[in-house]
């Protein structure tokens, strides 16, 4: 197989899996370990892959696109259920909880059983479900963003500043070592940033697909949060943030 052919296949595999080991590539490309290692070094120097110990990961995927709630609700459902189930178990009787709008945090609401805690949210669907469960819930005021069904804007930020939460549960569009937690929308990013500031402990609920992605607006650095995920695709994230994997591969 020609060198360029191997390079193209390696890039194709990385695009599909986000991370791959040297051992996996030697088997799939029927090449020696030394050849694959040289290929990865070359691709890394060309700026096409991120070389790590024992393999490679895809370069961070930068995007400003925000899918609507219906689309995101259909993605990684089982993973979001497990993340939501674990996150709900962290809520105690005396907690004052902030819940961010989003599809993964909505799964958290599905599993909440604690009716003694007090909840504040900027998500309409979240507030409705909480009240239906018999929970005490408050809705942050602001402008309604139809695509994500979130309340955002100056009014929402002003209202957040009145509160001091024991726990905050937030979603994210991207998790990056260098750029931190990111979201495509400026106003949602400002809301999330304020929520992190107002929370004694901040939990980011995100499945594995969010790792290595970067959106337009950073709202928190990795060292300021605890990430609850199904699994982290690379151990490098655990060196910077507290990571709880609920579906360890």
Strand and helix map with partners:
Layout: H1 3-17, E1 19-21, H2 22-29, H3 33-45, E2 49-52, E3 55-58, E4 61-62, H4 69-73, H5 77-88, E5 96-99, H6 103-111, E6 118-121, H7 124-132, E7 136-139, E8 143-145, E9 150-152, H8 154-160, E10 165-170, E11 174-176, E12 180-183, H9 186-198, E13 199-205, E14 213-214, E15 217-220, E16 226-229, E17 242-245
Parallel strand pairs: 4-14, 5-6, 5-10, 6-7, 10-13, 13-16, 16-17
Antiparallel strand pairs: 1-3, 2-3, 8-9, 11-12, 12-15
Structural notes for this entry:
The chain has 2 domains: 3-59, Arc Repressor Mutant, subunit A, CATH 1.10.10; 69-245, Rossmann fold (3-Layer(aba) Sandwich), CATH 3.40.50. 37% of the residues lie in helices and 26% in strands. It has 9 helices and 17 strands. The strands form 5 sheets. Strands 7-6-5-10-13-16-17 form a 7-stranded parallel beta sheet, with helices on both faces. A 3-stranded antiparallel beta sheet has the order 1-3-2. The protein has a 3-stranded antiparallel beta sheet with strand order 11-12-15. The longest helix has 15 residues, at 3-17. The radius of gyration is 20 Å and the shape is elongated.
């Amino acid at each position: 197989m020609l060198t360029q052919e191997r390079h193209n296949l390696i890039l194709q595999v990385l695009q599909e899996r986000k991370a791959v080991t040297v051992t996996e590539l030697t088997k799939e490309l029927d090449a020696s370990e030394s050849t694959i290692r040289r290929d990865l070094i070359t691709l890394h120097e060309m700026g096409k892959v991120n070389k790590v110990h024992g393999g490679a990961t895809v370069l961070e995927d930068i995007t400003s696109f925000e899918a609507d709630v219906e689309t995101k609700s259909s993605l990684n459902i089982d993973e979001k259920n497990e993340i939501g189930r674990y996150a709900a178990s962290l809520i105690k009787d005396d907690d004052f909880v902030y819940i961010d709008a989003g599809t993964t945090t909505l799964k958290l609401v599905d599993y909440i059983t604690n009716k003694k805690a007090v909840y504040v949210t900027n998500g309409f669907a979240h507030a409705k479900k909480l009240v239906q469960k018999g929970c005490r819930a408050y809705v942050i005021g602001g402008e309604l963003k139809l695509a994500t069904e979130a309340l955002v804007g100056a009014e929402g930020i002003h209202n957040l500043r009145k509160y001091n939460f024991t726990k905050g549960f937030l979603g994210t569009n991207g998790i990056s070592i260098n750029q931190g937690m990111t979201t495509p929308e400026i106003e949602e990013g400002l809301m999330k940033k304020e929520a992190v500031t107002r929370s004694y402990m901040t939990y980011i609920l995100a499945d594995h697909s969010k790792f290595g992605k970067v959106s337009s607006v950073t709202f928190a650095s990795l060292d300021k949060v605890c990430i609850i995920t199904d699994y982290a695709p690379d151990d490098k994230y655990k060196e910077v943030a507290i990571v709880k994997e609920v579906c360890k591969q």
